[in-house]
């Protein structure tokens, strides 16, 4: 049983550290669902968590042999859909699936090909306004975007994608009323923390640059 709750993790700098060799370094980033367009005009949906924003550009790290990476090399439109913490079971229904056939060698045995991932996840496609792939209707935040640059990472195993956000859609319940701000008290990302799903805990404080109270 895991008894190390965040409040019990020591933070004083004098504590001893040990050297460890973890198999993964997923230290807790938001889960996004990427909708992209397949060769045949159908749409793929894939969960990923190596994603962050640089201004209005989203940077994505994608396995080079996945269907999403194949799609984004040739068709630049995508939607970055952000699920809420309660939607983790739908994300996990997508987890063992790939839109790529034949299934890439490294995924054989643990992944299966699925041409309709929206249906497999129990999620509804919702038409986008500026890009071809649909949004995920159930996701409280949806970013329509277009690839500006896609290049291999240093290992050659991943594709690093920089996508410019064209339009942001938000559930009105997560917007500060009468403003353009997302309300951090109403919105929580779904966090992928060493292959476990978490939401956010209570607020600890805010940055001097925050524009919401
Ligand atoms: C929560 C979660 C986070 C993931 N994060 C990433 C990621 O950041 N990059 C990546 O390439 N794959 C990630 N994956 C694995 C992909 O979802 C998986 O490779 C999938 O088969 C890709 O689908 P596709 O081949 O249809 O694109 C993640 C999976 C889950 C469930």
TrEMBL record:
InterPro entries: Flavin_Rdtase-like_dom (IPR002563), Flavoredoxin (IPR052174), Split_barrel_FMN-bd (IPR012349). The keyword Cytoplasm does not apply. Its EC number is 1.5.1.-. GO terms for molecular function: oxidoreductase activity. Residues 27-200 form the Flavin reductase like domain. Its cofactor is FMN. The keyword Flavoprotein applies. Keywords: Flavoprotein, Oxidoreductase. PANTHER family: FLAVOREDOXIN, FLAVOREDOXIN-RELATED-RELATED. Belongs to the flavoredoxin family. This is Flavin reductase family protein. It comes from Streptomyces durocortorensis. The lineage of its organism: Bacteria, Bacillati, Actinomycetota, Actinomycetes, Kitasatosporales.
